[in-house]
Amino acid sequence: MAPSLWFLLGIHLALHHTAAPQHPHFGTPNIIFEEHKGWMYANYVNSILTSVMNKATEAEWNYVTNLTEYNKHVKVAASLALRKLQQQISKNVDHFRWTEFRNPVTKRIFEKLAGLGASVLSHEKEDEMTKLIAEMQEHHASAKICSRFSYPYQHCPLSLDPEIINTMRTSRDYCELLHYWNEWRRVAGKPMQQKFLRYVQLQNEAAILSGFHDASVTWIGSYEDDNFEQKMAQIWEQIKPLYMHLHAYVRSKLRDVYGWQRVSKFGPIPAHLLGHIHAQKWTGILDITVPYPNKPAINITDTMLQMNMTVLGIFRYAEEFFTSMGLPAMPRTFWTRSVLQKPWDRKVVCHPSAWDFYINNDVRIKQCTQINMDDFLTAHHEMGHVEYYLKYAKQHIVFRKGANAGFHEAIGDTISLSVATPKHLKAVGMLRHRWEDYETDINYLFSIALDKVAFIPSAYAYDLWRWNMFKGVYSPHQYNKAWWTLLLNYQGICPAVRRSWDDFDPPSKYHIAADVPYIRYFVSIILQFQFYKALCDEANHVGPLHQCDFYHSKEAGRLFGHVMEMGSSKPWPEVLAILTRGKTRDLDAGPLLEYFMPLFRWLKARNRGEHVGWRSMDAQACPGINTCPRTNWYNLYHPWATGK
């Protein structure tokens, strides 16, 4: 029998046994006795659910590291089998009076179990939803574009990672950047329109059948805060002045490079000029925007190349940082089972990710790593996820996740903040010049702001768009216009090629195509600076916050490890209170603003006479002259592709 059939047979048997407690006979009401039975059932579920989640994760891994039809079929079957088991468990939980349980741990386990089967779609529609997401994910991973100077029927070899990413980061040719930007959306986004519309329908149908108004309620509800949307809006308003000054300064530098005809003094920035295919992280344009260009940059890429550093070496550096704090080393199987470079012989999803397989400390990273500083920091970030997996591995299966989704992202980024400091890079031999002066300090803070502050508005806007979409605020033919309206309002960017109802840009972003909520990244940006400040305090750091490095601090490691061990066993405000030694239980932008305060002062002084903010009458096109010569045959027969 094929392995997949053995797996499905195992699921059938598991479900047969799981059904036993459906109609428990409790006799005389006795909540203590019932709670004891509940605890026994929770332990049983822990065992069976761990095993089935392992099988489903293995199938998912096999698919994203080898995009074949067979692997997709196995992945879909495994996902549906897991979903069926989760729904059965959720039904069984209804036969316990768990809301009356006195033990808070047991009660929280049952609360989590009750939510496992939230979807009540028919088997056919559940199958359809799973396949839709897999197909959108596969399309994004396999999409390729032609070069700027291509001919009809020529093979188009350029994938997002590494070719498009590298070009967006390094090219300063306005028209080349525009070509790559527009072609990626044409190839990766537009063909997904009908699949995405159906996906939205199914998401909302599942939510409504589960008793919710729409799918946004379930997405937001995971943060266990009735005022979550309002709090996110308030935090954005706190950060907005810093972002607007960063935007104004960067716009002025881009105007120097590309001219006022293409970069308006008062308008939004053309999205293709910011060094990133989605204009989210602006580190790719550091060389043309750095405040003090005569000072050496805090960029270790050249040093890494001079050292002949390997991909494996990058991850060994990351591991050594964690072990220096007393946190676990990577298991032996991590090194043999991870995919740390892009394979040459098969299609893979290159988006970096960390994986927990739930048994035997089987943890892995998938990353198409290159030898540069960005990937050096990404390796530390992804290994932060893995450390979290290892630390909460002894928790019940329903608690083996971050205290909230933002916690998981923040763990790795907190480490990256320490790793990126000149102090740390000097300590590990990566930085070979002096950095202890004001101008170099501003350059360093500016480079971090291009990574962190520039990212914040999109992290908020992407899910604001999806929440509004689920709520029915936009009609389907308005989806793309609403997308660009939000990006204009929050990011201050615009498309240099006019968008229309016929375009569909959102699925060109991996997380949109792959059904991954994005507000976690907004939450994580706030949390990581709260975490960073807490660990710096624990390490007895003295001086400006942005200069803190807690490398080798066992005290910081003990506190961090203790918090990671909890997983989601406690509400996230309680976990945050433990990490901050009781100073706060809530999201707070204060540490982020403290970190960037020296740069904020510098930006405000530098921007005197510069317009701060942006004006535009049309979210679907940039103001000014944005056309380029038709440089390939596609554009010759599709003149709108270049804005003409």
Automatic annotation (TrEMBL):
<feature type="active site" description="Proton donor 2">
    <location>
        <position position="511"/>
    </location>
</feature>
<feature type="binding site">
    <location>
        <position position="409"/>
    </location>
    <ligand>
        <name>Zn(2+) 2</name>
    </ligand>
</feature>
<feature type="binding site">
    <location>
        <position position="223"/>
    </location>
    <ligand>
        <name>chloride</name>
    </ligand>
</feature>
<feature type="binding site">
    <location>
        <position position="381"/>
    </location>
    <ligand>
        <name>Zn(2+) 2</name>
    </ligand>
</feature>
<keyword id="KW-0482">Metalloprotease</keyword>
<feature type="binding site">
    <location>
        <position position="520"/>
    </location>
    <ligand>
        <name>chloride</name>
    </ligand>
</feature>
<keyword id="KW-0862">Zinc</keyword>
<feature type="active site" description="Proton acceptor 1">
    <location>
        <position position="382"/>
    </location>
</feature>
<feature type="binding site">
    <location>
        <position position="385"/>
    </location>
    <ligand>
        <name>Zn(2+) 2</name>
    </ligand>
</feature>
<feature type="glycosylation site" description="N-linked (GlcNAc...) asparagine">
    <location>
        <position position="66"/>
    </location>
</feature>
<dbReference type="Pfam" id="PF01401">
    <property type="entry name" value="Peptidase_M2"/>
</dbReference>
<feature type="signal peptide">
    <location>
        <begin position="1"/>
        <end position="21"/>
    </location>
</feature>
<keyword id="KW-0479">Metal-binding</keyword>
<dbReference type="GO" id="GO:0016020">
    <property type="term" value="C:membrane"/>
</dbReference>
<comment type="similarity">
    <text>Belongs to the peptidase M2 family.</text>
</comment>
<feature type="active site" description="Proton acceptor 2">
    <location>
        <position position="382"/>
    </location>
</feature>
<feature type="disulfide bond">
    <location>
        <begin position="536"/>
        <end position="548"/>
    </location>
</feature>
<dbReference type="GO" id="GO:0008241">
    <property type="term" value="F:peptidyl-dipeptidase activity"/>
</dbReference>
<dbReference type="InterPro" id="IPR001548">
    <property type="entry name" value="Peptidase_M2"/>
</dbReference>
<feature type="binding site">
    <location>
        <position position="385"/>
    </location>
    <ligand>
        <name>Zn(2+) 1</name>
    </ligand>
</feature>
<feature type="binding site">
    <location>
        <position position="381"/>
    </location>
    <ligand>
        <name>Zn(2+) 1</name>
    </ligand>
</feature>
<keyword id="KW-1015">Disulfide bond</keyword>
<keyword id="KW-0645">Protease</keyword>
<dbReference type="GO" id="GO:0008237">
    <property type="term" value="F:metallopeptidase activity"/>
</dbReference>
<dbReference type="GO" id="GO:0046872">
    <property type="term" value="F:metal ion binding"/>
</dbReference>
<feature type="active site" description="Proton donor 1">
    <location>
        <position position="511"/>
    </location>
</feature>
<feature type="disulfide bond">
    <location>
        <begin position="350"/>
        <end position="368"/>
    </location>
</feature>
<feature type="disulfide bond">
    <location>
        <begin position="146"/>
        <end position="156"/>
    </location>
</feature>
<keyword id="KW-0378">Hydrolase</keyword>
<feature type="glycosylation site" description="N-linked (GlcNAc...) (complex) asparagine">
    <location>
        <position position="103"/>
    </location>
</feature>
<dbReference type="GO" id="GO:0004180">
    <property type="term" value="F:carboxypeptidase activity"/>
</dbReference>
<feature type="binding site">
    <location>
        <position position="409"/>
    </location>
    <ligand>
        <name>Zn(2+) 1</name>
    </ligand>
</feature>
<keyword id="KW-0732">Signal</keyword>
<keyword id="KW-0325">Glycoprotein</keyword>
<protein>
    <recommendedName>
        <fullName>Angiotensin-converting enzyme</fullName>
        <ecNumber>3.4.-.-</ecNumber>
    </recommendedName>
</protein>
<keyword id="KW-0121">Carboxypeptidase</keyword>
<dbReference type="GO" id="GO:0006508">
    <property type="term" value="P:proteolysis"/>
</dbReference>
